[in-house]
Amino acid sequence: MGNLAGKRILLGVTGGIAAYKAVDLVRRLTEAGAEVRVVMTPAATRFVGGATFQAVSGHPVRDSLWDEAAEAAMGHIELARWADAVLVAPASADFMARLTAGMADDLLATLCLATECPLILVPAMNRAMWANPATRANAALLQQRGIRLLGPDNGAQACGEIGPGRMLEPVDILAALDLRAGSGELSGRRVIVTAGPTREPIDPVRYITNRSSGRMGYAVASAAVRSGADVVLVSGPAEIPAPYGMELVRVETAQQMLEAVHSRVGEADIFIAAAAVADYRPAEVADQKIKKKADNLSLDMVRAPDVLASVSALSRPPFLVGFAAETHDLETHARIKLESKNLDLIAANTVGPDKGFDRDDNALVCLWPGGREDLGHGSKATLADRLIALIAERMNAAPAEERQAHAGH
Questions:
Q1: What gap in Å lies between CA 54 and CA 38, rounded to an integer?
Q2: pTM (2 d.p.)
């Protein structure tokens, strides 16, 4: 949609616990300069009251097709024509099914059928509901009809289960709608971000990997887009929906990640190495599945390519940002990595039981030559925004000549 300033957004809210996130979404949309009107399904009013949305949007909320005062002038058609875009967040499995069938049994569904502007759905439901063949078929058909789907995200759900189906965070929805080139701290910058684990094959069915989910790297890439950067995300295997507003390059092994990065890094201003790249890989990969025969099995391991070090070794490296995930002596090990790889900045976090990997939250401490800043604890999306702001600040504080002198090139 481009810049949201002056845009008229009709926000539809359907029934589901994620409806509470829609309140924050309205706030963020209005802060971005959009005018927002809210339409709720009857089920949505069971989770959040209409008065709440009226307070944050500044406009009355509609929730009934049988509002005599509004419908005397065909209010649902008027709303459908008023909007520059219709955004439904959350979009429940039931609503998607009714929309697929062309039903007009409530005000929101009627509006979606009557509008001629872009229609965008943000699915939110239990992971099994999202995986159900009926829902998958409905999602595919809606997309074939030109309806855009944002998400769903992968993670912990209100029911206690974990998997794909949770609603995207409002900050990520806003980024997908408002890709404002030239409006942030990294405006005009080219950024490469690596994310996720790598998989180093042992045989055709087995591999060595680690616990990285890729969430932190994906959050950093999305934050860079929000800051105005042109972003390439090089991702190892990650069960996360493809982010919006960037080029996504999927790889599996450390060697593939190395090649993908080096094919693009020549034009990059910033390289952010958030991926958990394997330190070692099997020396040989078996052509066939290794059969269980002996009680013990030994693997000959060799060093895997060091992607970050290889970029640091370039004659004219970009601004280099590394990550250090440590189980102990966090800042000591992070400072060693910062200096040994000639980095401009490193973001360090503790990993272990209930920390770091495969979670929605994190805690980061950032180090650079002669400096330190604790970004605190928070959601990975929040920390990513703080990190990108710090990167922009450090780039301005360290001109290219000084960075190159520091790198020793």
A1: 8
A2: 0.62
